[in-house]
Amino acid sequence: MDFQTIATLAVILLAIILFITEKLSVDLIGLVIICALVITGVISPVEGIKGFSNTATITVAFMFVMSAALLKTGALQFVAYKLSDIFKRNFRLGLVLMMLLIALISAFINNTPVVAVFIPVVIQIAKSTGKSPSQLLIPLSFASIFGGTCTYIGTSTNVLVSGIAQDFGFEGFSMFQLLPFGLVFVVVGTLYMMLIGSRILPKNRKNDEDLEEKFGMREYLTEIELQDNTDSIGKTIMESPLVKDLKIDVLEIKREGTRYNLPQGDFILHSGDILKVRCNLSNVKELKSRAKILDGSSLKMAGDNLKGTGTSLVEMVISANSEFDGKNLQEVDFRRRYRASPLAIRHREEVLHEDLYAIKLKAGDVLLAEVKSHYVKELRKKEMSQNAPFALLSSDNVIDFNKKQFLIVTAVLATVIGLATFEVLDIVISVMAGVVALVLLNILNMREVYKAINWKIVFLLAGVLSFGVALSNTGLDQKIAGGLLNQLGAFGPVIVLSGLYLVTSFLTELMSNNATAALMAPIAIAISTQLGLVPTPFLMAVTFAASASFMTPIGYQTNTMVYTAGSYKFTDFTKVGVMLNLLFWILATILLPMIFPFQSM
Question: Where is it predominantly found (predicted)?
Fold first, then answer.
């Protein structure tokens, strides 16, 4: 085994470890892959950066813009809230219609913002119907995955595998080539969740409105009165020893009957001021010695007891690929940019209260914060953007539906799909022309275009596309394909396809679906070459399996987003997902060769 082969295997192993551990953000991992493969001489510098100009990368980037335009119209929010009436009349019918609606939408726009829009709606539906959000949020995530497999533009994975096929000299996927088996995903997956999955999902995890109980905040909030001998008198908040030494957050100041909510750092403290503060438990004793803690100051979190006049409590679930992901609140300048003060962070199954500004946030974390009421509207505007850093888990999130804009965006999207479907224009040019049309029609401006593109995914795609080049340059794709054929080849191409699907499905539970697809697609092509068959059925196996992440909350972005919001445990996904994965594996083994027949090259 030569040096370049060893280096390629080492880079692949390193990438898998980084994806699983989430030590680095996915975009940085993409750049690490490129740099490592170029430095070791496995690929040339030109081959390293070729992924940035790949049609798959560019198509995905512009599809993010199309998604952002549709979100801006308020159509998704409008439709989402209409669902609540159906759920109240018939919960099971509402569940089926919700999943089918999500699948339909996800077939044409990016999954992540769809799920972000629906999370707060689903939680409110659960409250109004007396159900637990845990009965709805996993079906929401899974439905977006089902729908994304139906069309070429349904998810970046489909576009990526198609682009890899073209790089190897084969035809890419057409717009609706995946639809026959994608519909199997939608129909079978929805029936499974309605008949079996809904019985397995936890039913007793109520999304309790008592935030004191939910976040365990009783011991962490209190009111103090500044007396004459306090060393903070006459100083600004940020210069106050009380604040600097004890790392407390001042949420409100009451002075002579006037309330100052979330005061700025240059606010000067006076004797007699009553401060509502959040303090780490370890510093409570020290706080008592420096200031007078008022009797009965243990603040209740239910209703408006915590919220001061002019402020609101919000729960913010961190979105996949959010700017918050991998950073702490200090790095994102949370208090200044969002006019908010953090109170607690729910990370997976753990609630964190201390050193909130130093905690590294992850997608799916829920942040409890107190926000100036007039700024909540601004937060909702940020939530509507394509790359929204969070979704607000609020019950009064009403978005105006702009019917005129919706009709324009729908017409442009339909034109883009039509031109690509009938091969009038290549898909990348069709999507690019659609974005230009949206700008010229004043639906979006260029600043919104740049902001809409999820650059993390773009950098990830460019990076993982290097896998294919590296595997080809070193011959590893042929060696791995040969090894798989040695084990399964004697049983025929159907069993080989089945094994390829199973391996891909296992990998995608551990790391990014795009990384899995980029790694396995060249191997699928190598298998087809050695068998003398067209690569289409094998590439389809990789495409569908890479999206079929149901057993863990980390394998797919939307699973991660609903993980904490639904108060799930890791095993909840495993219980529901194992049987679903096995079901799709069996169906893929039987149906893929029928839908995409094996043919000699």
Answer: membrane
